[in-house]
Amino acid sequence: MWFAQQLDENSPVYTAGEYVDIQGPLDVERFCRAVRRAVDWAEALHFRVAATPEGPRQIPVADLQWSMPVVDVSAEADPHAAALDLLREQTGRPFDLAEAPLFRFTLVRLAEDRYLWSHLYHHVLLDAYGVSLMARRVAAEYAEPSAGTGPDTPRSPVGPLLAESARYEQSARRAEDRAAWARYFAGGFTPTVLAGSARPVSHGFLRHGVELSAAETDALRSDADRHGSTLVRLITAAFAAYVGRHTASQDVLLSLPVHGRSSALARSTPGMVTNMLPVRATLQPGEPVPQAAARLGRELLSVLRHHRYRGEELRRDLGLAATDARFFGPVLNIQEFGHSLTFGGHPASVHNLSNGPVEDLAVNVHVWPDGLRIDVDGNPAAYSAEDVARHAVRFTRFLRACAAAGPERPIASVDLLDTTELTALAARNDAALQAPGTDVVALVAAQAEHTPGAPAVVHGERSLTYGELADRVGRLARLLAERGAGPGRLVALALPRDLDLVPALLAVLRTGAAFLPLDPEFPAERLSAVLAEADPALLLTTEELAGRLPGTCPRLLLDRAGTAPEPAAAAPAPYLPEAPAYVLYTSGSTGRPKGVCVSRGNLANFLAAMRRIVPLTEADRLLAVTTVGFDIALLELLLPLVSGAAVVLAGTDQVRDPAAVAGLLADSTVMQATPTLWREVAGRHPEAVRGKRVLVGGEPLDSALAARLAADAREVVNLYGPTETTIWSTTAPVTGDGTAIGRPIGNTQVHVLDSGLRPVPDGVPGELYVGGHGVAAGYLGQFGLTAQRFVADPFGVPGSRLYRTGDLVRYRADGDLEFLGRVDDQVKIRGFRVELGEVEAALGRRAGITAAAATVREDAAGDHRLVAYVVPADGTTADPVELRRYLAERLPGYMVPSTFVVLDALPLTANGKVDRKALPEPRPDAVVRGRGHRTPQEDILCGLFAEVLGLTRVGIDDNFFELGGHSLLANQLVVRIKETLGAELTFRSLVDAPTVAELTRSLGVDTTESAFDVLLPIRASGTRPPLFCLHPMGGPSWIFAGLMRHLDADHPIYGLQPRSLARPEPLPDSIEEMAADYIEQIKTVRPEGPYHLLGWSFGGIVAHAMATQLAEAGDEVGLLTVMADYPSEDDITNHRIPSEQEFFAAAVASTGYDMSKLEPGKPLEAAFVAETLRTGNSPFALFGEYNLLALIEIYKNSVRIMAEHKPRPFEGNTLFFRPTLAKDGTPKTAPDEVWLSYLSGSVEVRDVETRHETMTQPEPLAQVGTRVADRLRELEGRS
Length: 1279
Prior knowledge:
This protein is α/β, with parallel strands linked by helices. It comes from Streptomyces roseochromogenus subsp. oscitans DS 12.976.
């Protein structure tokens, strides 16, 4: 407490005390003497606490000076209210622990026959039991004054109390208690927070009290007796259940203050002895009230056996000492030491003012002989006064209901809510809508009669009018019927995204059959399992796709000659609401996908409800981007057609490319997509969203994206719903906060229930159950699973059902639902439902894998990625690339983890289950088996691959998709490559060339053949003047590849490299000769200025010489950039040229080669060095024997011509980047000024905190590139 008070000296939270309400006349002088004698008696009050060199210590105060004011408020309009205001003000004043007294007394006169006496103490002196002892002592002194007063008055000393505590600290019992607590928490624990998240302790608290009369209290005791329990156990069980129901948890921690007075001495001595202990309450939903109370009673007893071990030490043992949390969970403080007081024969009642700090919620139960009072205290940082009042009233009602429950009634079935609250919840489900009398087929046919010439479906340059659509649907339906389609039959559809897709869906429905949509890109094993279970009567597909589809199901190929539909249309089958409309397969937790059977009535109701929420007109064009394997695609394909609007069907490649989607959206009015796709479209193409109606669903919508969409779009609607309740069940208009999933659509009911299927209050998490006209029939052929997930509706008409979603939600104060997460292992990846169990089951079937777990991790960009953890069998290894290929052959792409982590064993909880919270974060690396980069372009592409995939390194032969890439990450990569290399690239390009080596060839930027040419095209594309980069003394210009990340993509970048590096050629005799040669080279790609030149080290000198020659010849030099210092005469004179063997050794060592393997004294040969560079994934892997030997001669020549060079002044735009660190990494004593003597005009000097030798490392080069890019924009008037 002392430490906590020092951290916040102005906090009054440790002020504890009460007031005594005296109902009768009082002899004030006699009362004051009684109080003074009580203070003299209580030695605990004669201390202060101060800091000393040995730490904080209790300091005795020999001559305690204090007084008790007497305040008369009898003249106030409301004396009682005035008195309470005064006492609350005094309770809110902090104590200074270093100054005595650490107590505060006040006597308030309300009337001749009524007084309030408050006695407040810093908690470091007294606990609640000690406060009670003081009140009783004052009453006793008032009745019969003890002999004597002052310092000689016999005291209740604290010394024996402290000695008793010291003996315990040194005893074996303490060690036993500590070990017992360690066992108690051996399986770990999570502090329980009733408020949802921990909040800082406020300086005050909010309180609401409920009083029970003596008769009501006796009734509670009688009920407790009937249950074979006690009042304390019953209250504890009720509070544990109350907390569990409010936190949606069956394992809660409570904090229980224990007065700890186990000896007669302790029970008679005022002091601070109370201990705060945790009690773990494991709740069992089906457990009756008596058994719950008995079991928690036993739990209490087991804890109380070890109550002397201090809670502060226990927090330290559990690693909580460094946290702000003082307690373990909500506080339940049952005080049975209530007392009847009289003063002069007049009764007095006791009322608590404060029990100390309130972190979350504290329930204080004061048990008196004549009744019971429940005070609920709440932290104002977490609760409003209304919240606290609701908790007080609700808990009291819940306690009474638990007490009155029958002996067999489960505690989980006791309602938290009263009739009024339940009625209010039911009113939120008032979403009645007249059930449609017809289905989608008839509605589209009616629209075709009304607007036959209006566009219905648009795909690229082709389209169908409503009349053409109706004609095609009727003719295809006849052909399907002839091939066996009809009521009670299932027709599988595996079609490309073209004009045949929508007519095929409608034609199947017209026959009375149900359709089974298949994604042709799913693995053959997955498709085979679906077809085997569903057993469709017919498979409708195309000749191109037929070869990919497994199974022996009869097939109808739409595009094969001889299968064109007959001219006559088939009559539509009658509308039967209960008949199946479609079967859609989703991920299954057992490893077996499950087919959801949705009826025609389900679908008709959904479309009718959505027409109200998203009203479309004939002027609307809805862009359809979702695969038909995802049920939300049916809104995109059908809602426009029953509204007279047009479906704009995006192609397969287009839906994977956010830029293409944005282009299509420009000519559309509405689009539905997952947050993942909207994030890409809105983030990179915000103009495409402006003025559009945005429908977003399939996965949680975060607030940042919600705000972005709401700011740009005409309207944004957040949609929620599982496949089992027909596409969408709730909707919410979005104004900036994306957490709400809103309210139910027409004829849909939603219920937020706890584990006992009872409604929970607003703000309390619960599982979402959905009822109404959208609830599907169940799972095809899986009756057990259907019974498990589709349960009887206790709130609906007999025979109605609810679907248990597994989603954790809560009601907000405004009545909207808020999505919180999952209660099971199901997750959403890019909008697709993924059962982690199915992924784990597939991994478990892989030979050599003994255990597997899967989870979802969020990366820095907010993207959710699937991560698998595997344990290989003894003596084997697990190759992530091979595992990914294995799963890709069996699961859809969205279910294949992007990252695999190999472990020796999976972490387990105390009960032997996988501890998902303990699974380690994946390291940002992968099994990189490809070669290292060899060219500047490969260097940049490897970096971009790694950046997008979240890896540290990628080789040029590593497959983007095998390293965890998927379509949305691929599009991010496409954008980054365009921005960096300026290359035209599509998603298809990456699919066809998924490795860096293949991609450089397909993009035409493969410079392996010209890597040593004098003019090296680092980035050849772009229409603006290039940047020409000059090589250092002996190296190639590849080091400037990093500039591509920073310069605008429209700026080409070329490197100038030494002659003789590629083939034998004469070396230049001077820098002026070299500069003239290089000018001829750059004019082959840029005949006229402006010329932008950049050089590092030796290259800076050459670039400067080129600039002077160009200027003298009348050519425009746009920008000269010089990196690093001008070499001093000492640097040139004493420049040491490494020997051939030193050079070779450095090259070999750079690959990580074990130099100890070299034969001592044996010279290294160029052939060996070249082979080592090639096989060691070195950036210099392209260097052959000739290139290595040539480099040494080039280096020697560069040193010679640099020493002989005499630079001439250059006047123009110059950027000079000056390193500020010396070779040893210490700051330079004086900045370089040599270059400035050769530069004039617009010269900008930039200091870079690095060494000369490291100027081209990523961080310094980024500073250079960013400023060069800005300067080029300024020179071109684009800043």
